[in-house]
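> forwarded from #structure-qc
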């Protein structure tokens, strides 16, 4: 998913110089290999996620999934060398808070925040391009960012990631997140997941 984040004051633009792109056939939830912030008044660039080099100063390409909170205060990111850890980084102090994720997946990301920045929803996906399009599945997690309480919206739903880039056929796609609910689209059918009760119900269409 391409990533561009404008700060609330409209002065700074945060984006990777180039997206990570598709990692071959199937799903690729990463945003890029590095993340920079550009001050549009001065043209000054600052690095939020740096490129990685080895001891011989050779570039080591690996991708990240990342997203910045609506209030511009913190960055959520997953380093694809450690797909089972979600890290929150305070963009003022640099302080990091890691959170261990359920294992058994090989792709994670595709973040959606609630407008108040309290709830973060993201995907974990398991797929094997060497085995074709069988036995692929997705789980969708929700996180209370303040308490670091992790919950599950859907668990191990079968998907077909081979039909189209970033098309989760048969699975759920997150449409909206609030402080209390997650709205999902399953091949055109809308569902509402209640974060408190854990119930999934058909969404009520707007009048």
């Amino acid at each position: 998913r391409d990533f561009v984040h404008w700060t609330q004051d409209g002065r700074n633009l945060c984006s990777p110089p180039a997206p990570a792109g598709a990692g071959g056939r199937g799903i690729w939830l990463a945003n890029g290999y590095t993340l920079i912030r550009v001050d549009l008044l001065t043209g000054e660039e600052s690095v939020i996620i740096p490129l990685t080099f080895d001891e011989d100063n050779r570039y080591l390409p690996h991708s990240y999934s990342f997203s910045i909170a609506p209030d511009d205060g913190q960055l959520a990111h997953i380093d694809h060398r450690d797909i089972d850890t979600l890290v929150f980084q305070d963009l003022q102090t640099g302080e990091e808070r890691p959170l261990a994720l359920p294992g058994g997946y090989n792709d994670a990301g595709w973040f959606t925040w609630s407008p108040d920045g309290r709830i973060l929803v993201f995907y974990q996906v398991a797929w094997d391009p060497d085995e074709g399009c069988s036995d692929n599945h997705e789980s969708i997690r929700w996180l209370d960012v303040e308490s670091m309480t992790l919950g599950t919206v859907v668990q191990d739903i079968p998907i077909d990631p081979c039909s189209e880039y970033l098309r989760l056929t048969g699975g759920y796609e997150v449409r909206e997140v609030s402080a209390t609910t997650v709205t999902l689209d399953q091949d055109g059918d809308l569902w509402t997941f209640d974060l408190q009760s854990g119930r999934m119900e058909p969404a009520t269409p707007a009048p």
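QC bot note: The first strand starts at residue 5 and ends at 6. Confidence is low (pLDDT under 50) at residues 22-27, 163-167.
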